[in-house]
Design goal:
The structure is a single chain. By secondary structure, the chain is an alpha+beta fold. The protein has two domains: 75 residues; 306 residues, BirA Bifunctional Protein, domain 2. Helix content is 39%, strand content 21%. The chain has twelve helices and 17 strands. The longest helix has 34 residues. The protein binds one RNA strand through helix 3 and helix 4.
Length: 424
RNA sequence: GGAGAGGUGACCGAGCGGUUGAAGGUGCUCGCCUGGAAAGCGUGUGUAGUGCAAGCUACCGAGGGUUCGAAUCCCUCCCUCUCCGCCA
C-alpha cells in the first residue's frame, strides 16, 4: 500500500511512475473519497468532542433534573454521530479498496520498459556443458529413470500434479535440506516452519489480496487460503508489531510447499515440473531498516545464487523492468537457470525489495531510536530456491548419454552417498 | 465434540457505568548518589487519524447493542489456557 499522504500530495508524480508499469490509478475517485473522508471525520470528531464534554458535565451534576435538556440534546447528537460513523465506514471501505489495489511504485533504478523483452541481463555464471547428443528434457529423463510419475500424479489429483518416486523423492528432500542447511549455517538465516494455510489478513498483508484471489486455492470451511509462497506466512510473522531497531535485520528462511492455481496460464508449460499447482520452495525473507534495503537485496540475491553455484548449475541474473515486476515489488532480480533440455534459461528464483509497501499493509514497524516515532520496515524476499525447478535443472544438466544422472557433489551426503541415479 | 477459565499498554497486573489513555509493578530513558558499579532516590516512557496550530478524535481480542456517558452491562464471533473424550 502506498502512503495516503504521499499520494494526496503527489498524485501526478505517482501516476507517472505507475504508468511505467502499465497501470493507471483512479485519480478522480481517490481524490473525491479522500476529501469526503476527511470532511466526515471532521464533522464526526467535532460532535464527539461536544458529546464527551457535555457527558462529563452531566456526570458531575448530582441533580439530573438540572440537565434534562442536555441529556435530550446529546441523545440527538449520538444519533447524528452514529449516522456519520456509518457514512465514514463505507467511505473508508471504498478508499481502502482503491488503496489496496494500487501497485507499488518502481524503484528509481528499476529499468523502465514495456514488456519482459526490456528486462536487463545483469550477469551470467557457470559454463554450459557441451553434449555429444541432443540433451533430453527432464520429463523424459524422470520417466525413464522411474523417479517422476506424471501419469499417476494426474490420476491422483489432476493436471500439474506429479508423483515423485524413489531417488526422485529423495533428491527433492535432499535439496530442501541442503538449501536450509546452507542458509541457516552459512548465511545466518533463522529457520521457520510456518502454517501452510493463512487467513485473509495475512494474504492482504503481503499483497495477494484483494486483487489476486483468483490465483489462490481457498479451503472449504474456514476462510483460509493455501499459501502460494512462504513469503506470505513468514512476512506476516511480524504483522501488527513494532520491532526494536537492534533486532534488525531479521533474516528468516523457510521451506514450504506452495499452491497456485496458475489461472491464465492454460496450455503453457504443460509438460514436466516447470509449472505445477503444488511445488516445494525454500524462501528467504528479510525485515530491514529502509537505508539498508538496497544493499540487503544484493545480499539476499547473492545467497540465492550461492545455492546454484554450489550445485554447479549455470545461470543468469536478470533485472526485471518496470513492466515485469510484481504488484508489491519496487525492484526484482530473477535468477534463471540453464535448462539444456529446452535450450533456455528459466526462472528459478525471484528476489525483490518491497520497501515499505508490505510493511504498511501489514503494519510492521520499528523504532529508529529510543523515543522516536515508529517507521515502517522494508521487506525483502526471494526464493532460495524453487526446489522442483532445481531438481529438474539437475536432471537436465547432469544427465549422461547412458540415461543416468550424476548427483551433484554437495548433494551426495544428503543422498546417502549416492553418486549417480541409474534407475532400475 | 463436552465442561470450565480468560483475553487490558514492551511485559506482568488493577480496574465501582462518569475527572481512566487507563492504578501498581517490571523493563527502558534521563538525572542524583558512587572512585566505578549494584542498590537506592527522582523524572519520563502507548499507537494511530485529523488539523496551520493549540488541540480534538479513536483504540482495553473483533463486531454489534443498551446509555447523556461503556475497559466496565447485554449479544454474536475469534483466540488462548485447563480438564474430559476422540485422534496423527
Amino acid at each position: 500500500m502506498l502512503d495516503i499522504k504521499f499520494l494526496r500530495d503527489n498524485l501526478e508524480l505517482a501516476q507517472q511512475q505507475l504508468a511505467t508499469r502499465g497501470s493507471a490509478i483512479n485519480l478522480a475517485d481517490f481524490q473525491q473519497l479522500d476529501q469526503r473522508r476527511r470532511e466526515l471525520l471532521g464533522k464526526a470528531d467535532t460532535l464527539k468532542a461536544e458529546k464527551n464534554r457535555v457527558s462529563a458535565l452531566i456526570g458531575k451534576t448530582k441533580d439530573k433534573s438540572l440537565v434534562k435538556d442536555e441529556i435530550g440534546r446529546m441523545k440527538e447528537v449520538s444519533t447524528q454521530i452514529k449516522d456519520l460513523d456509518e457514512q465514514l465506514r463505507t467511505t473508508n471501505e471504498k478508499l481502502q479498496n482503491i488503496l489496496l489495489t494500487i501497485p507499488n511504485l518502481p524503484h528509481e533504478n528499476c529499468p523502465v520498459g514495456l514488456s519482459e523483452d526490456d528486462n536487463v541481463k545483469v550477469r551470467t555464471w557457470g559454463s554450459i556443458r557441451e553434449y555429444s547428443y541432443t540433451p533430453r528434457a527432464h520429463w523424459d529423463i524422470g520417466e525413464e529413470l522411474d523417479i517422476l510419475d506424471f501419469e499417476r500424479g494426474g490420476k491422483l489429483t489432476g493436471a500439474r500434479f506429479t508423483l515423485y518416486k524413489g531417488a526422485g523423492a529423495r533428491l527433492e528432500r535432499a535439496l530442501i535440506n541442503f538449501m536450509l542447511d546452507l542458509h541457516t549455517e552459512q548465511h545466518k538465516y533463522v529457520e521457520m516452519l510456518p502454517p501452510f494455510m493463512v487467513n485473509r489478513d495475512s494474504m492482504t498483508g503481503t499483497g495477494q489480496l484483494p486483487k489476486f484471489e483468483d490465483d489462490l486455492f481457498h479451503v472449504e470451511g474456514p476462510d483460509y487460503f493455501l499459501i502460494p509462497t512462504a513469503e506470505v506466512p513468514v512476512t506476516n510473522i511480524h504483522r501488527d508489531e513494532i520491532l526494536a531497531a537492534e533486532q534488525l535485520p531479521l533474516c528468516y528462511t523457510a521451506y514450504t510447499p506452495c499452491f497456485r492455481k496458475e489461472a491464465g496460464s492454460h496450455g503453457r508449460d504443460t509438460r514436466g515440473l516447470i509449472r505445477q499447482h503444488q511445488f516445494n520452495k525454500v524462501e528467504l525473507v528479510k525485515f530491514v531498516v529502509p537505508e539498508e534495503s538496497d544493499h540487503e537485496l544484493d545480499n539476499l540475491l547473492a545467497n540465492a545464487e550461492h545455492v546454484l553455484q554450489l550445485l554447479e548449475l549455470p545461470y543468469q541474473v536478470v533485472d526485471l523492468c518496470t513492466a515485469d515486476i510484481g504488484f508489491s515489488a519496487t525492484r526484482t532480480f530473477d535468477i534463471e537457470v540453464w535448462l539444456p533440455g529446452q535450450n533456455v534459461y528459466r526462472e528459478i528464483s525471484s528476489c525483490s525489495n518491497f520497501r515499505d509497501f508490505q510493511a504498511r499493509r501489514a503494519a510492521i514497524r520499528y523504532r529508529p531510536e529510543e523515543g522516536a516515532k515508529t517507521e515502517y520496515v522494508h521487506t525483502i524476499n526471494g526464493s532460495g530456491l524453487a526446489v522442483g525447478r532445481t531438481l529438474l535443472a539437475i536432471l537436465e544438466n547432469y544427465q549422461q548419454e547412458d540415461g543416468s544422472v550424476v548427483v551433484p557433489k554437495v548433494l551426495q551426503p544428503y543422498m546417502g552417498g549416492l553418486e549417480r541415479i541409474t534407475g532400475k
